[in-house]
Design a protein that fits this description.
The complex is a heterodimer of chains A (240) and B (584). By secondary structure, chain A is mostly helical. Chain A contains eight helices and two strands, in the order αααββααααα. Chain A folds into two domains: 35 residues, no CATH class; 202 residues, Four Helix Bundle (Hemerythrin (Met), subunit A), CATH 1.20.120.80. In chain A, 68% of the residues lie in helices and 3% in strands. In chain A, strands 1-2 form a two-stranded antiparallel sheet. The N terminus of chain A is likely disordered. Classes of the chains: A mainly alpha (240), B mainly alpha (584). At the A-B interface, α2 and α6 of A face β2, α5, α6 and α7 of B. The site of copper (II) ion has 5 residues of chain B, from α7.
């Protein structure tokens, strides 16, 4: 390892593809992910860490669900809504899931329009995403109210294992907080997009280089992640 | 577009020069600073101050163990509170914060040839949240009931039951403080990782990074994956304590009274805690490994032996340390079958670790060893680390661990391996980098005195504890009482240990004095007193100014270990020194 010239020569020299490309990038200087900005790299790593947080929550929930000797309340009954005369299991959760998944769609479109520098459409789609997210949180608040009205508390409930209420409020609460933060962030960013901050490189919080709408994509990463987590909560909490 | 400097092809800059935030007032320059170097000093001073508190607590514990009843204010409850706060502060608020927040912030940008961390603002927030966490922790001493006495492992159910000292407020503050620490750390940690991955200088490949950076980088990645478990455990225990949920609480009859808890899993907390707790050991060990490699290489004027192997050993240890956590739980009542698996993985970690030790020794082999203070501490580290590592092999085996667990043997083991060894590196590193921070050398005589007292003293304190452990003296005991199996000679030994601990403690005060005294009266050091190769010693100014590098960023041409290269004019070649132009 004596004197050698730096290995990576200029961006314009074509880089090998596939596995060898990865090796070449990681053994090059300056950056390991060649086309990834600092902000995006940071978000990815944060999400990896957050994945561990949610995994721990879900694994803990599964452990207490299995360790408790009292029967677990039946989710399809607990989470049923009576609409008209009909008692429909899981209907609210189904709608909530649909809303959240749709919001991922609008978010993806916002990212797309962001890269085309269509400020109007980007901002509109971001606001639509925020609205869907807010709807989701609203429905969750409704569900919480309903359950609390029926006597569910973190420390007990009328139907069985006390851990039911504890895990429910803890996990949906933690996820709901993530969605709420996302909604706030989306609104702030939509305002910046609309004002054209990213075209004029106006100085400020989270305003990156001129002409770069990357922050929209970074917000999108977070948003899709929160959606994905919901799918796991849905499967493990409501369907199990 | 290949730029040709000194006859060598150099890649174009991919990483744009950052627009630095320039402080306009004294407050933004020294208090709410976004400069990684200032943040590093803030982190270090806070960590060292709270570490002094933990040191004082260890004296008080030792006084009780050596001379029971002499200090009348230490009762059983107080003793448990001291044990708990001492352990938690040392592991998290001192070692983790100092290695990652302190050394990480200072060294990563400088060693990689960057102007600053990638997100200075977030970096600044990281420190302030850490400070808040420390304040919340310290508040525990002043609330009714005092800090928690649950042991640093905070095992439920006892951690939150009445009769455990600090059950009123202490445990709540402890959990909140831990959560704050984790949030603050995450902000800093993301910065360190992204800076290493995406913010290096031209020519700085990963395989040219000094091992210090490798150690800190790997430890940070581990911390980002391990702290979530502690975070979740803290949230759940806080809910158990405050809202009366039963995540970790089985049904309990306390003093003839049936508590409201029921159906939870105490062992779940142990799994969450140790999924964090074991990697935590390496979160403080890996930066120490990295730093000590650089100290040894620099002060023995020799390239590090087996650089690649060292890097892969760091990464392998980091990965393996996520699958060994239950070796702390052999006596917990978990499925005994797990013991086999976790004992095996534990012993496998010894392989990369041994590789590292061999490589340090081989680096020293026939080196031009300068017995400077940093070198002395580096050698002290190797000795104490090997010592603690060997007893670790004992404890990793289920059959040996079962009788030894919860005795002083364990206390001796972990103090050697994760108490004294990393502290040795911290001291060595401070003696090594102090000149870069201040432009002055620390006093050498005081330094050598500090080393010898600390090193010999640490052995005097912890070596006899192995023996006490073998006798069966339990850990976390406020007093022995009339315990028939403990011979009276054990008590004499305890007095000896206490006296040694007080002497070692006094030596640390000499060190603190040295830090302040040398600030003014130290010998001026110049920019590169150790004639070291790494980039932080090549800054245009010492101490480095805001932005680190003046107008032009450095370009890296070689690895970090070109010491005593045959035929070179000097016995070291800085990383940014271009190769000789090739004659056509
Ligand atoms: C001169 C230095 C030190 C002395 C004299 C000292 C002394 C002690 C003593 C007497 C105990 C309690 C033993 C018992 O009753 O169970 C203890 C526990 C502990 N110490 Fe230290 N210690 C020192 C440095 C450190 C350092 C640097 C660390 C950093 C890792 C550390 C980490 C711990 C931990 C984790 C515990 C266990 C706490 C518990 O049982 O909950 N100590 N120490
Ligand atoms: Cu361990």
């Amino acid at each position: 390892m004596a004197e050698t010239t730096p290995t990576h020569i200029g961006a314009e020299i074509a880089r090998p593809s596939g596995m060898r490309g990865i090796v070449a990038d990681w053994s090059s200087d300056q950056r390991a992910f060649k086309n990834v900005s600092w902000g995006k790299a940071m978000m990815w790593i944060f999400l990896l860490s957050d994945t561990f947080v949610f995994s721990c929550f879900l694994l803990s929930y599964m452990t207490v669900r299995m360790s408790t000797v009292v029967p677990w309340p039946n989710p399809s009954e607990v989470f049923a809504l009576t609409i008209g005369a009909e008692k429909i299991p899981l209907i609210l959760i189904a709608i909530m899931t649909f809303v959240l998944i749709s919001s991922s769609g609008t978010m993806a479109m916002a990212v797309n329009f962001g890269y085309r520098r269509d400020r109007r459409k980007t901002a509109a789609l971001m606001l639509a995403t925020a609205a869907l997210g807010a709807t989701f949180v609203g429905m969750q608040a409704f569900e919480w109210t309903k359950l609390i009205g029926e006597g569910v508390r973190p420390w007990g409930n009328p139907w069985g294992a006390v851990q039911f209420g504890s895990s429910f409020f803890m996990i949906t609460g933690f996820h709901g907080t993530h969605v709420t933060i996302g909604v706030i962030f989306l609104i702030v960013m939509a305002r910046k997009v609309l004002r054209g901050d990213f075209d004029h490189a106006r100085r400020g919080f989270f305003t990156s280089r001129k002409g770069s709408y990357e922050i929209v994509e970074i917000t999108g990463l977070y948003w899709h992640f929160v959606d994905l987590v919901w799918v796991f909560i849905f499967a493990l909490f409501y369907l199990w | 577009m290949v730029d040709v400097t000194h006859g060598v092809a150099v890649p174009v800059a991919e990483v744009g020069d950052v627009e630095l935030y320039h402080p306009r007032s004294w407050v933004t320059k020294y208090v709410f600073s976004q400069d990684a170097k200032v943040i590093a000093i803030q982190y270090s001073l806070t960590a060292l101050s709270i570490g002094l508190v933990a040191l004082v607590l260890s004296w008080l514990m030792r006084m009780q163990l050596g001379f029971p009843g002499l200090l009348s204010f230490i009762n059983a409850d107080r003793y448990y509170q001291f044990v708990t706060m001492h352990g938690m502060i040392m592991v998290i608020y001192l070692l983790t914060a100092l290695f990652l927040g302190g050394f990480g912030n200072y060294l990563i940008p400088l060693m990689l040839g960057a102007r600053d961390m990638v997100f200075p603002y977030v970096n600044m927030l990281s420190y302030w949240i850490y400070l808040l966490a420390v304040l919340v922790l310290v508040a525990g001493f002043f609330v009714p009931g005092g800090p928690t006495g649950a042991g640093w492992t905070l095992y439920p159910p006892q951690a939150i039951l009445a009769n455990t000292p600090g059950q009123q407020w202490g445990i709540i503050l402890m959990l909140v403080s831990l959560m704050l620490f984790i949030i603050g750390f995450t902000m800093g940690g993301l910065n360190y990782v992204v800076t290493v991955l995406q913010g290096r200088a031209r020519g700085m490949t990963m395989m040219r990074m000094p091992l210090t950076v490798w150690g800190i980088f790997t430890a940070t990645v581990m911390a980002l994956l391990a702290f979530p478990a502690l975070f979740v455990g803290s949230v759940m225990m806080l809910l158990d304590r405050v809202l009366g949920t039963s995540f970790f609480m089985p049904s309990i009859v306390l003093m003839g009274e049936q508590l409201k808890y029921g159906g939870g899993s105490p062992i779940l907390f142990q799994h969450l805690f140790w999924f964090f707790g074991h990697p935590e050991v390496y979160i403080v060990a890996l930066p120490a490994f990295g730093i000590v490699s650089d100290l040894i290489s620099t002060h023995a004027r020799k390239n590090i032996f087996g650089y690649r192997m060292m890097v892969w050993a760091i990464v392998a240890i980091g990965a393996l340390s996520f699958v060994v956590w239950a070796h702390h739980m052999y006596v917990s009542g978990m499925n005994p079958g797990f013991g086999f698996f976790f004992a095996t993985t534990t012993l496998i970690i010894a392989i990369p670790t041994a590789i590292k030790v061999y490589n340090w020794v081989l680096t020293l082999w026939r080196g031009d060893i300068h017995f400077t203070v940093p070198m002395l501490f580096a050698l002290g580290f190797i000795v104490t680390f090997v010592n603690g590592g060997l007893t670790g092999l004992f404890l990793g085996n289920v059959v040996v661990d079962v009788p030894l667990s919860r005795t002083m043997f364990v206390v001796a083991h972990f103090h050697m391996v994760m108490g004294i060894a990393p502290i040795m590196v911290i001291f060595g590193a401070i003696y090594h980098w102090y000149p870069k921070l201040t432009g002055r050398m620390l006093d050498d005589t005081l330094g050598k005195l500090h080393f010898w007292v600390t090193f010999v003293g640490a052995y005097a304190i912890f070596f006899p504890m192995h023996y006490l452990g073998l006798l069966g003296v339990p850990r976390r005991y406020y007093e022995m009482g009339e315990t028939a199996f403990v011979p009276p000679s054990a008590h004499t030994l305890n007095e000896f240990i206490t006296i040694a601990a007080l002497i070692v403690g006094a030596a640390q005060l000499a060190f603190v004095f040295n830090l302040f005294w040398s600030l003014r009266h130290g010998r001026p050091s110049g920019g590169n007193p150790w004639r070291a190769t790494t980039l932080e010693w090549q800054t245009p100014e010492t101490p480095p100014t805001h932005g680190n590098w003046g107008k032009e960023l450095p370009v890296v041409y070689r690895w970090a270990y070109d010491y005593s290269v045959p035929g070179a004019a000097e016995d070291f070649l800085p990383q940014n020194q271009p190769p000789m132009p090739r004659t056509p």
